[in-house]
Design a protein that fits this description.
With 1067 residues, this protein is of the alpha/beta class. Helices cover 37% and strands 20% of the residues. The chain is built from 36 helices and 40 strands. A seven-stranded antiparallel sheet has the order 14-13-10-11-12-17-18, with helices on both faces. It has a seven-stranded antiparallel sheet with strand order 33-32-29-30-31-34-35. A five-stranded parallel sheet has the order 3-2-1-4-5, sandwiched between helices. The chain starts with 8 loop residues before the first strand and ends with a helix.
Length: 1067
């Protein structure tokens, strides 16, 4: 079947902001879809709210809308653009749910939009728990004993039949949102209530527990002729009970018999035939190894996190092929490198892939490190090795958690075996590292299997690594015998880890193995569905099979796993670097280990090495490829952490030098430079001991901003109000950065924060925009809402910021990108910090201002001068507001208060002709829509009351009922703002939690009372999250909300595409 000619314009809905359970894998799949469908001649209409994505670049689709992903916004876009078709299964759960909602609202029928790729009945058969169960029963495929409940009362009735323990699975959600295990009635009622709230349709599945069974996944693809292929068989090493996004897994299946794999494939094919999906589907099974019973857990009739992993694990681009199939092509028309066309495809890699998750529990005070059916990971790595041990060890060193091997993590090796066994009773992010030490202490494999449900084969593989490590430790203080070193490298031991075990330098280990001829070799992973493409992985277990070219080439180091503080924005920059290098005639070579990203797509760069970002791995590639230089400033902190070692080993770093990067991080040298340039800085100091810190505090005075050096995302940054807090901070800070001093600054209370990004060539710099933070100083820049252009900063201060930014760029000889953060207090602009690298704001500025910053910065690195780039600062006729998105709903025990340590997982952009409307749209896009009428709860800390008055007056003038706690009410009424009283929780019933529960409050404005308060007020914020009531924890945020509501009520202008906004800039 050739492509469909009855379609001209295809609508693709993105997945929105990065959240736990739905990350940048959907930028990867959406970008692939745009490429595939445009190549087939279709016009692409793309809608997404996430500005940090490659898919929302104006050149990726023909028409791009950065708008809230709501039925109202999509209806308006469809009415205006009149697409012929909607491809619903590439935007994750968000895209799928929104497509269903548009159909149910009659929008698709009204405007003649056909759904391609998966029909809407199929979505219901896959996503609606009862319909899915009925379909499986008809097919004769077993599901766990279960019952559907649409209310807590129904759920209580069903639990009597099923019995404890049970799993609660909300319908139409992703990442296990709102679900979990219940072992008693209290847990059950809490989980059901949360699950009903999380579900788009208010429905949960109450399901028998299959805890401890094997969890197995298949990625299958079906075309319009009913042909089916299995792209990948995935074995989760962690058993049922740990969400697949948190579980570490392998491809292919390493311990599953061919007979069972055949059975799972038969079931999967029957399911996708019944569901009638065209394209990719993920099918998850549970298998009881004791009885042989197999049950299907769920299916995802869409691209998913697992399909991104399967794509990268096998070289089969599922989203690309799914898009081609949705457009009418069939598998027998798509090329396959091995057997001609894709209907003959079978998984065939002679290698092992390991996926390992990355968590951020340290970012959330009070959260318990425990893994269950609700996903907690914020990112993941994928590694490829010739055997399981090599792949596992590569995965560990890819994680960037300060560990280059499995042993000696934290203090686990010092703990007795009974304590280690107790620590493994429930799954945690540390379980594999604890297992390693338990095996070192002689733990029995069968006992560990009974405790963890991790199969003996995997435990034996780990035991063999432990035994080899013990032999290596016998040679501490010197290099080991040659045969032992060679064995260690074949089993995946990193140079850095071996150096730590032996007490020698990493350089000594590297030089010795090279002298022995023990060097990394490379093998290809051929790409299916396209002609003549591959990417590459290293191994110490095979000869080198990868040729190199003699052309001009440059190496780009990616950002590694997603984490809070370093997300998709840095991948965006790396991708644009690869594009710019290719356009300039260079061969671009990408190194990265994150399977979710566009940078690890097979055709983003000329050559992709799917490798850890360590000195060992990068140097090996550098020696092989011999590029003209390496780009380190676009991948966030990851490449910067190894830049100095690479340079010391003879690597040429392109752009800003590691010496300049170090200057920006060295507080004393940087402060000296600022004094020389005449740029004001808050008083500051550095301290390596408690006494030094106390002396600095006495000189500067409290409050202080304290943080470790050399971190991203405000890691372990705190506002310290007194000596007691400073002593407590220093006690904790030792673990954060033992080799680096603590940085101490005077905290500028009530200051306005701003930042500027610049492109520099070493002698000149261009500043495209200044961005104003909406929250005041003290909230991490990654968590603060912000606006371009500034709204309240006077023009003279904006000019000062631009001047200072240019001065800093030139004096530091920055070549590439520079981000500088400022605070404005007492009519003075202070510099807070300068980062001579890509920042989170690059994609945001690029899209609002129509300037491809990463591409231009790459050109500067290649020698183009700013003066020759034709750059011109244009006045902005529109506003862009960025809002951060937080995972607090996934962490109900955490106080959702904003501070100097970053905790957001993603961001959205609201664009409009007025600041107020742009802010309102950003809140909508962040899934926290502001009410246009109703009741606002004000409960304000004493030190914020004066500044909160203006916001309360505005809400009152808009006709909102003001509800306030006693102290706030007395203050408001004393200042002429009418307010009703509501009790705090400790003051009796009915109280504000009752009002929230009953839906009587539509917006919460609550600034935290802080540690000096007699009562903890975090319950107010937690209750707002639990009941899905929008909440604001800063006075500046409350004022912005009032402005936004007022602007929206005055009337919303029609939707406009990004291309239309950009056209206004050039007219």
């Amino acid at each position: 079947m050739p492509r469909r000619d009855d379609l001209k314009k295809v609508l693709i809905i993105g997945s929105g902001p990065i959240v736990i359970g739905q990350a940048c894998e959907f930028d990867y799949s959406g970008t692939q879809a745009c490429k595939a469908l445009r190549k087939l001649g279709y016009e692409i209409l793309l809608v997404n709210s996430n500005p940090a994505t490659i898919m929302t670049d104006p050149g990726m689709a023909d028409t791009t809308y950065i708008e809230p992903l709501t039925v109202e916004a999509l209806t308006e876009i469809i009415r205006k653009e009149r697409p012929d078709a909607l491809l619903p299964n590439l935007g994750g759960q968000t895209g799928l749910n929104l497509s269903t909602a548009l159909a149910k609202a009659g929008v698709l029928d009204e405007y003649g939009v056909r759904v391609i790729g998966v029909n809407l009945d199929a979505i219901e058969r896959g996503e609606d728990r009862q319909t899915f169960k009925d379909t499986m029963t008809r097919l004769g495929i077993e599901t766990p004993r279960s019952a559907i409940a649409n209310s807590l009362e129904e759920a209580r009735r069903e639990i009597r039949e099923i019995g404890f323990p049970v799993v609660i699975r909300p319908a139409y959600t992703m990442g296990g949102t709102g679900g979990g295990f219940a072992y008693n009635m209290d847990e059950f009622e809490a989980l059901v209530s949360r699950g009903l709230s999380a579900s788009m349709v208010g429905q949960v599945l109450v399901e028998e527990s299959v805890l401890g069974w094997e969890e197995l996944e298949l990625e299958v693809v079906r075309d319009a002729k009913g042909r089916k292929i299995t792209v990948c068989f995935i074995e989760n090493v962690d058993a049922m009970g740990v969400h697949t996004g948190d579980s570490y897994c392998t491809a292919p299946m390493l311990t599953i018999s061919p007979e069972l794999q055949d059975r799972l494939q038969r079931y999967s094919y029957a399911i996708v035939d019944a569901i009638e999906v065209i394209g990719g589907t993920n099918v998850q099974f549970a298998h009881d190894p004791k009885t042989g019973r197999v049950v299907v857990i769920e299916i995802n009739p869409r691209t998913s996190r697992s399909s991104a992993l399967a794509s990268k694990a096998t070289g089969f681009p599922i989203a690309l092929v799914s898009s081609m199939l949705a457009a009418g092509q069939t598998l027998d028309e798509i090329p396959y490198w091995r057997d001609g066309t894709l209907e003959k495809y079978t998984p065939s890699g002679d290698y092992v892939v390991v996926k390992f998750a990355r968590w951020a529990f340290e970012k959330f005070k009070g959260v318990e490190d425990r893994l269950g059916t609700q996903m907690r990971a914020v990112g993941e790595v994928m590694s490829i090795g010739k055997n399981y041990k090599e792949a596992l060890q590569k995965a560990i060193r890819s994680l960037e958690i300060g560990r280059s091997g499995l042993g000696f993590a934290r203090d686990f090796h010092a703990r007795p075996l009974p304590e280690l066994l107790e620590m493994m009773a429930e799954p945690t992010s540390e379980r594999q590292f604890i297992l390693y030490e338990a095996l070192r202490k002689g733990a029995d494999i069968e006992a560990l299997y009974r405790l963890t449900h991790i199969k003996p084969w995997f435990l034996n593989q780990m035991k063999e690594l432990v035994d080899l490590e013990e032999q290596i430790l016998e040679h501490r203080g010197q290099l080991p015998p040659d045969d032992l070193l060679a064995r260690a490298k074949k089993d995946g031991f990193a140079d850095k880890y071996l150096a730590a075990l032996l007490g020698v330098t990493e350089t000594a280990v590297r030089q010795r193995r090279i002298a022995l001829g023990v060097m990394e070799a490379w093998e290809p992973v051929p790409v299916s569905g396209v002609e003549d493409a591959a990417y590459y992985y290293s191994t110490y277990n095979a000869p080198d099979r990868v040729p190199v070219s003699s052309g001009r080439k440059i190496l780009v180091l990616g950002g590694g796993p997603n984490r809070i503080g370093q997300g998709i924005e840095f991948d965006y920059c790396c991708v644009h670097t690869a594009f710019a290098l290719r356009d300039a005639g260079y061969e671009s070579i990408m190194v990265n280990c994150n399977p979710e990203t566009v940078s690890t797509d097979y055709d983003t760069s000329n050559k992709l090495y799917f490798e850890p970002l360590t000195v060992e791995d990068v140097l090996s590639i550098y020696e092989k490829e011999k590029p003209e230089g390496v780009v380190v400033q676009f991948g966030g902190q990851t490449p910067l952490n190894i830049a100095a070692q690479l340079e010391a080993a003879g690597v040429r770093i392109l752009g800003t030098s590691p010496e300049t990067i170090d200057l920006a991080e060295d507080r004393q040298r940087f402060a000296a430079l600022m004094r020389k340039l005449g740029i004001p800085q808050p008083e500051s100091g550095m301290a390596s001991t408690l006494d030094e810190a106390l002396a600095v505090a006495e000189r500067i005075g409290y409050p202080l901003m304290v943080r470790p050096s050399y971190v991203l995302g405000g890691r372990a940054m705190e506002i310290v109000h007194d000596e007691e807090m400073l002593r407590e901070y220093l006690r904790k800070a030792v673990d954060v950065s033992p080799e680096r001093p603590v940085l101490i600054d005077r905290y500028l209370r009530n200051a306005i924060e701003a930042e500027a990004d610049a492109i520099a060539d070493g002698t000149d710099a261009f500043v495209p925009a200044v961005m104003e933070h909406i929250e005041l100083a003290g909230v991490h820049s990654g968590d603060s809402a912000c606006v371009i252009p500034p709204v309240t900063i006077p023009a003279r201060h904006v000019a000062t910021i631009e001047e200072y930014t240019r001065k800093i760029a030139v004096s530091m000889k920055v070549v590439g990108l520079l981000n500088v953060q400022y605070a404005i207090a007492d009519d003075t602009v202070y510099i807070l910090e300068a980062n001579p690298r890509a920042s989170r704001t690059v994609p945001l500025v690029s899209k609002v201002c129509d300037i491809s910053m990463a591409r231009l910065a790459t050109q500067a690195m290649l020698g183009t001068k700013i003066a020759d780039m034709g750059l011109e600062k244009k006045p902005l006729p529109h506003f862009g507001v960025k809002e951060a998105v937080f995972p607090f709903y996934m962490f109900p025990e955490v106080d959702p208060v904003l501070g100097p340590e970053m905790r957001s997982t993603g961001e959205v952009l609201g664009m409009a002709d007025s600041y107020g409307l742009a802010f309102f749209k950003a809140q909508e896009a962040a899934l926290s829509p502001l009410p246009l009428e109703g009741t606002v709860l004000f409960t304000i800390a004493d030190h914020d009351k004066e500044s909160a008055l203006e916001a309360a007056r505005r809400f009152s003038a808009l006709g909102f009922t003001i509800l306030a706690t006693e102290g706030t009410r007395a203050f408001l009424t004393g200042n002429g703002v009418s307010a009703l009283t509501v009790k705090k929780m400790h003051e009796g019933r009915p109280n504000l939690v009752d009002a929230l529960t009953n839906g009587e409050i539509h917006l919460v404005v609550n600034t935290p009372a802080g540690k000096k308060s007699a009562y903890d007020d975090s319950y107010i914020r937690k209750a707002a999250i639990r009941h899905r009531v929008p909440y604001i924890t800063t006075v500046a945020g409350a004022l912005a909300a009032a402005v936004g509501i007022e602007a929206c009520r005055a009337g919303r202008s029609g939707v406009r595409s990004l291309q239309e906004y950009h056209a206004d800039l050039s007219s």
